[in-house]
Design brief:
mainly beta, four-stranded mixed beta sheet, 19 strands
C-alpha cells in the first residue's frame, strides 16, 4: 500500500478494533408482583430492576388506570444513581377500591445504552382501603338492679364495644389517665369487646377514652370519649343518699 507520492505503508504497531454489538432490549423485573394493600396510613414501594442500565425512565413511562392519579401519590427514583434499580412509591389519599398500573412499550421512552427500546409489558393490580374503622356501638351498663343507667359505689360498669369488621383490641383508659387502663376482652372474631370497672367511693364522673385500634389493614380508628347513645348506653354515677 502506497500514498500518492509512492511512500510505502509503514505499520507502527498492530491495531486491534473490537465492536460490541448489543441488540437485546432491556428487561424489567418488578417486586412485589402481588403487593400489599395500600391504606390511608401506609404506602407500598415497588422495586423495579433492569437487566442493564436504562435511560429516559421517569414517572410518565408508568400508565396508571383511570382515576388512580387523582387517588394516589406516586414517585419514582433510582437507587442513588444506579440506573439498574428504581423505586416506585405509591401512597394513598382517600379513595378505596382496586387500582392498577402498567409499563408498556407503546407508552414508554425507556432505552438501554445501545439505544435498544424497552419492549415488554408489565401489569400490576392492587387494592386500596382508606375506610376509617369505627365502633357501631359503644355501650356502658351498670349492674345496678334498680336502674342500669346509674351506678353507686361498688357497682360494676360494663363497657361493650361492637364493630361490623374485625379490629385490633383497643385501649380503654379512665379519668383522662393513660395509666388507668382496663383489661379488654375480645369476642366474635374481634368484632365485640368488653371491659369492666368497679365504681369507687372517690369516683364522680366516668370519663373514658377508647383509642389505639386499627382494622386488619392498619387504618387507624379515631379516639372515642362518649357512648354511641346517651339515652340507652350511658351510666351516671350517683352516690347521693336518699
Amino acid at each position: 500500500v502506497k500514498d500518492i507520492v509512492g511512500n510505502e505503508l509503514f505499520f507502527v504497531n498492530n491495531v486491534n478494533i473490537s465492536i460490541f454489538i448489543d441488540l437485546t432490549p432491556p428487561i424489567l423485573f418488578i417486586s412485589p408482583n402481588v403487593p400489599n394493600q395500600v391504606t390511608a396510613s401506609s404506602s407500598t414501594t415497588f422495586t423495579i430492576t433492569s437487566t442493564e442500565e436504562i435511560y429516559d425512565f421517569d414517572i410518565s413511562d408508568i400508565l396508571f388506570d383511570s382515576g388512580t392519579t387523582n387517588s394516589f401519590i406516586s414517585t419514582l427514583n433510582n437507587d442513588n444513581g444506579n440506573r439498574k434499580i428504581w423505586f416506585l412509591r405509591i401512597s394513598g389519599t382517600n379513595t378505596s377500591g382496586i387500582f392498577s398500573f402498567s409499563i408498556l412499550p407503546e407508552n414508554s421512552t425507556i432505552f438501554d445504552f445501545a439505544g435498544n427500546k424497552y419492549n415488554q409489558s408489565i401489569f400490576i393490580s392492587m387494592r386500596a382501603d382508606f375506610t376509617i374503622p369505627h365502633f357501631n356501638s359503644i355501650c356502658l351498663r351498670s349492674d345496678n338492679l334498680l336502674d342500669p343507667s346509674f351506678a353507686k359505689t361498688g357497682n360494676i360498669i360494663t363497657f361493650t364495644l361492637t364493630s361490623s369488621i374485625s379490629l385490633t383490641t383497643p385501649i380503654i383508659s379512665l379519668f383522662n389517665n393513660n395509666n388507668n387502663q382496663l383489661t379488654v376482652n375480645s369476642y366474635n372474631d374481634n368484632k365485640i369487646f368488653n371491659a369492666t370497672y368497679i365504681i369507687k367511693n372517690i369516683d364522680e364522673k366516668l370519663n373514658f377514652s377508647i383509642y389505639n385500634y386499627t382494622d386488619v389493614l392498619g387504618n387507624i380508628g379515631p379516639i372515642v370519649t362518649e357512648p354511641s347513645d346517651y339515652s340507652n348506653c350511658n351510666v351516671e354515677i350517683d352516690k347521693t343518699l336518699p
